[in-house]
Please model this.
Amino acid sequence: MDTHQNSSTLKEGFLVKRGHMVLNWKARWFVLLPDRLMYYKYEGGKKDSSKRGTILLAGCVITSPFLVHENRPLVLRLQTNTSEEYFLEACSREERDDWASCIKAAVERLRSSDGQSPGSEAPAQPQRKGSSSLKLHNVNLSQVVDSMYDVHSGIKLTSHMEQASSFSNCFSGSAVVDWLVFMQLTLTRVEAVTLASALLEEGYIRPVGVRSVEALRNVALGEQFLDDSTALYSYSENLKKRGSVKAETSLSAMELSGKVQKRGYLLKQGHKRKNWKVRLFVLRSEPGYLHYYDPSKDDLSPVGGFSLRGCLVSALDDSGVHSGVKGKVQGNLFKIITQSDTDYFIQAPNRQEKMDWIEAIKQLTS
Model:
């Protein structure tokens, strides 16, 4: 994640963002520039080259802390001069306050350069209309896919032709929209396209063929999915292996009773699928444990963890391919081997964070 950055970058790092249309929480990589806040998606341990969105800071109002979400006390809110709201969660109180301070300072500098007095508000502009303002409340994407997958009432997989090429076990974009409206999961075709785009964004379905693949390159979420009989899609390969995620280690109240020594967002490679996911790591002492949480969930319980007694932790070089590491990761890797010989591959956002985590863990491994 140590990539070459423009000298104008003020701050960067992971934050968990609430979606605009499907109100779920997803970890994104944020880059703060003097006049905007940009965010990116990470896949396979590597940052997507195309940004997922941009928040213009001119006239923004920052509220921190924003104590509305009961299970998320580390949220800050940005309200733009077009009345759009963004909810961002940090990994700790210190990180939240630092992000809020840096963003406020950038907003104040923009106000000064525009000739406004500090603290004055930019004139409000009408809120934009259209599909970008659509929100789907209380939508469980996994349940939607389960219904789509149903052998009796789900979407039928068929064969299609596109530009003289044959594709099997797929369905058209218009078939998905028809089904979502027919099943009353959405009220209109516009809502159905928004929901289908969210399924595409989260990897539940994938594009098949030229038209749908080209549409996916459009970074506007509401325009990624095509309501078209010639745009083809299929289920993600990962759905064949889907199932509930279970904690890799049984947890007890004793494990969670220790003093928190360090918190932060790190990328962790899965043990079975070998995919990389952003997790909130919490390091505790007395007793020494390292737990990790899914930041997209409101559940306050960790999804995994292990005792640090007898663990070995070491940094991995940024060059070369390491045994056990899958995907083209962007460096700053370290490895933990537990007393039971289980390997954990973890990627930090930068070299300094990697070394800080290694040092903190080493102090608790004896």
About this structure: The radius of gyration is 22 Å.
